Every structure is written in C-alpha cells, then in structure tokens.
C-alpha cells in the first residue's frame, strides 16, 4: 500500500481518484492522508494554505508518506519556496507527482506568478498528469515534459447520476456568475444571449449571482457589475436570481433545472463545473480559451482574454438547442472512475519504484 500526501486531499476531484470499491480479497493500493490543519485555520475543513508546502513542516513530517501529489493550493508560495520543497523531497527520495489542472490560474488575470510556480514544479515532478491532450501539448511546448493524460472523474455523487431529469416546458439557457471571480465575465455575454434566446421559441435566459457580490464585507464585493447584471431583469426573457452560494445539493438541483450552461470564462484550462453538467445531462457551451471541449463533448464559442465573437455564441446556443444531450450513465462514470484510480495507482507505484 502506498501512502500519498495529496495537496489537497479534501477536494471532490481528489476524493474521486479512489476506486468505487475495493474487493475484499485485495489490499487497498493507495491511501491518501487527510489534510494537515493550517496553523491559522479559521474554519472547519480548511486546508489552505497547505502545510505540506511549508518546507519546515514538510521536513518534520517527511517520513509520514511515500509520494507527494500536488493538485491545487500553491498560489501563495513563491517559486523559491517551492524550490525548497523540491530539494527536501529529493534529499529524502520522496517522489513528486503533479497534476496540472490550470495552465492559467482562473483566480488571477496576471498569470506570470502561476507560470513561475509551474516552472519549478513541472520539471521537478517524476510524473506530470493533466486532463486533456491539448494541455499536455502546451506543457510539452513550454517545459519539454510529456504529461500523462488522465481524464477527470465524475463530480456529482454516483447515486445521483443517471436519474431522470425534471420535466421542463421551455428551454432554459443558464449563466451562473457565481461570485464574479477573476476569469468570469458574464456581463459581456448578456446582450448576445438575450438575442440568442429570442431566436428560440419558449426559450429563456436564467442568470444566477451569489449574494457575496452585494455584501460590502465580502472579498467578492462588486456592486457595480452586480447592478448592471441585475438590470437585465427588465427583459421578459431574463430571470435573475441572487442568492447565497449553492451547497452541493442545491447546485445539482440548479444544474438539472437548466438545459444548457454557458461558461463565461475569459481564461482557464479545465472545468469541474463542466464535468458536473455532464454527470447530470446538462449541455455546456464553453469558451475556446481552454481545452473544455476535450474534457467532454460540448459546443464552443470564441471567447478569450481579449476576444469575443458574438455570432459564434448565438450559433452555439441555436445548435445546442437543436441537439440532444446524452447524459452520463452511472455505469460509465463508475468505469471511468475505476480506470482513473488504477492509472493513478500505477503512477505512484512507478514513481516509488524509481525512487527506491
């Protein structure tokens, strides 16, 4: 059995890297340690900033794991801090596995720090994993490292995948502004989406906004853009809903209540939101700025840091309306997850074997 220190462990992606079942006659191949609690944690379950990337803490706990697997959470660590972590791992023959989820961190418009951090981690990793062939090609082009492509596991609980979708009399195009994090620009899309739904009988546009956007004590306070978005409530075709951030159950209900989700991302690489929509049979229209259509089948429109083609968005909405969305099956998502778990176990076994 291999003990993996995962950064983080308490994340739905990481949680679903375990197989769906372990036969009684087989030893579990991989165990992932729980996240160490940060020294100044202020909430239950907080894992950030990850202590495993604090070099002094890592040195004190170096014998507690076999492999370090980094996913997220290195945003606040300077490249030189990450280089110190790499030196410590090398000194104790502890292999590093890195999954590159983001080539452009969706929380920061300026990507230079993120790339500098990856400049340390990518060459140092025994194995680099990413989710799509396009991302693997981009990694090879910048770092000369061939990443192993392993797909994204399901996001929605397996027990909820494959359920019949609720009946709808109309066609609902959904845009979720969330808390207007850095890469989200729904405002630019709204006029075009209104035009698109007007071209489809019985279609409507639903816009959801987390109420953090209007809370002056919130990190996400952005009342000017929030007000401009809410102004669209004057259109008959537009349904505006401002509410607290959805918990998981509410999010699955929301996704099942819309027919297509438009992702208003100016930049990004991959998307767990897209995977959840796939799990629930909700179509997705994604921007061309990332590799979303390589994750799961979806329509795309021309949208990036400094590009937007409105006609491509209208075309994507009309085409998606005319196309049946094939929902994921529970059986296929179980099979996917077990294959993904086996692929990760093989990565760890190979890394540990080489280290020894």
Automatic annotation (TrEMBL):
This is Glycosyltransferase subfamily 4-like N-terminal domain-containing protein. InterPro entries: Glyco_trans_4-like_N. Residues 18-148 form the Glycosyltransferase subfamily 4-like N-terminal domain. It comes from Williamsia phyllosphaerae. Keywords: Glycosyltransferase, Transferase.
């Amino acid at each position: 059995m291999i003990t993996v220190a995962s950064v983080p462990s308490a994340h739905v992606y990481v949680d679903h890297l375990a197989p769906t079942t372990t036969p009684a006659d087989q030893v579990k191949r991989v165990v992932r340690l729980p996240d160490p609690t940060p020294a100044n944690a202020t909430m239950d379950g907080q894992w950030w900033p990850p202590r495993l990337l604090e070099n002094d803490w890592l040195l004190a706990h170096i014998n507690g794991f076999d492999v370090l697997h980094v996913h997220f959470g290195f945003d606040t660590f300077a490249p030189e801090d990450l280089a110190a972590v790499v030196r410590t791992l090398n000194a104790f023959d502890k292999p590093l596995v890195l999954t590159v989820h983001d080539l452009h961190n969706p929380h920061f418009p300026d990507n230079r720090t993120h790339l500098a951090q990856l400049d340390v981690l990518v060459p140092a990793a025994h194995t680099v994993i990413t989710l799509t062939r396009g991302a693997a090609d981009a990694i090879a082009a910048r770092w000369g490292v061939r990443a192993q492509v392993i797909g994204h596991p399901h996001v929605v609980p397996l027990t909820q995948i494959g359920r019949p979708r609720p009946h709808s009399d109309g066609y609902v195009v959904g845009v979720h502004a969330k808390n207007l994090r850095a890469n989200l620009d729904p405002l630019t899309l709204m006029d075009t989406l209104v035009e698109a739904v007007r071209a489809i009988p019985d279609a409507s546009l639903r816009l959801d906004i987390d109420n953090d956007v209007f809370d002056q004590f919130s990190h996400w306070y952005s009342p000017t853009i929030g007000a401009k978005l809410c102004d669209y409530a004057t259109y008959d075709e537009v349904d505006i809903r401002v509410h607290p951030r959805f918990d998981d159950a509410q999010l699955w209900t929301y996704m099942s209540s819309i027919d297509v989700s438009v992702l208003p991302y100016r930049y990004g690489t991959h998307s767990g939101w897209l995977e959840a929509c796939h799990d629930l049979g909700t179509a997705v229209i994604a921007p061309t700025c990332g590799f979303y259509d390589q994750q799961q089948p979806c329509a795309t429109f021309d949208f990036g840091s400094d590009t937007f083609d409105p006609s491509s968005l209208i075309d994507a909405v009309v085409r998606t309306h005319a196309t049946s969305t094939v929902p994921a099956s529970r059986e296929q998502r179980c099979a996917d997850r077990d294959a993904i778990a086996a692929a990760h176990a093989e990565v760890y076994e190979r890394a540990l074997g080489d280290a020894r």
